[in-house]
């Protein structure tokens, strides 16, 4: 829940350059299983349909912004 506002902000800030999604894993058990998500929050960055980064746990908005900017 702590990271949800950050994800929502990034969704707006990167609307023209990246697709930022927040998925409710309680309602998406098959998706969680297919991506082997064991803990929440789990953040996954894809580029060209390939997973290039994964992080479990809290992370700052600044770190996420740097990560996104470096891959755009």
Characterization of this structure:
The chain is of the alpha+beta class. The chain is built from three helices and two strands. It has helices spanning 4-13, 29-34, 61-71, and strands at residues 42-47, 50-56. Strand 1 (42-47) and strand 2 form a beta hairpin. The longest helix is centred in the C-terminal third of the chain and has 11 residues, at 61-71. The radius of gyration is 12 Å and the shape is globular. The termini are far apart.
Choose one word for the global shape. globular
Arithmetic mean of pLDDT: 96
Major sheet strand order: 1-2
Specify the structural class. Answer: alpha+beta
Number of strands: 2
**Share of residues in helices:** 25-40%
Q: Which sequence of SSEs, written as H and E, runs from N to C?
A: HHEEH
Spatial separation of the terminal alpha carbons: 27 Å
Question: Which oligomerization state do the chains in this entry correspond to?
Answer: single chain
Strand residue percentage:
15-25%
Outline the biggest β-sheet. 2 strands, antiparallel
Which regions are unreliable across 5 or more consecutive residues at pLDDT < 50? none
Rg for CA atoms: 12 Å
Number of helices: 3
